[in-house]
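4.2 Preliminary Data

To establish feasibility before requesting continued support, the project team ran the inverse folding procedure on a target of 70 residues. The structure was first converted into the token representation described in Section 3, and no sequence information of any kind was made available to the design step. The complete token record follows.
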């Protein structure tokens, strides 16, 4: 796994990663329905706070968001 500093990604690339993650199966938030844009903004704020980070798996060639808080 490689850690990817989000600040080094092109804005379009970061947005695409966040949109892809936010639209994955199982990312619903219960009774409240959020738009894709709202989900992306929430993820972006978590990145900025250092709550989550981006990893890249070289074997599967996929990006994931991971919790950095313990």
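Position-by-position output of the design step:
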């Amino acid at each position: 796994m490689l850690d990817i500093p989000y600040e080094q990604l092109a804005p379009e690339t970061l947005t695409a990663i966040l949109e892809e993650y936010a639209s994955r199966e199982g990312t619903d938030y219960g009774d409240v329905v959020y738009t894709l844009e709202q989900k992306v903004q929430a993820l972006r704020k978590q990145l900025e706070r250092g709550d989550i980070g981006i990893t890249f798996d070289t074997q599967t060639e996929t990006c994931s968001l991971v919790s950095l808080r313990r």
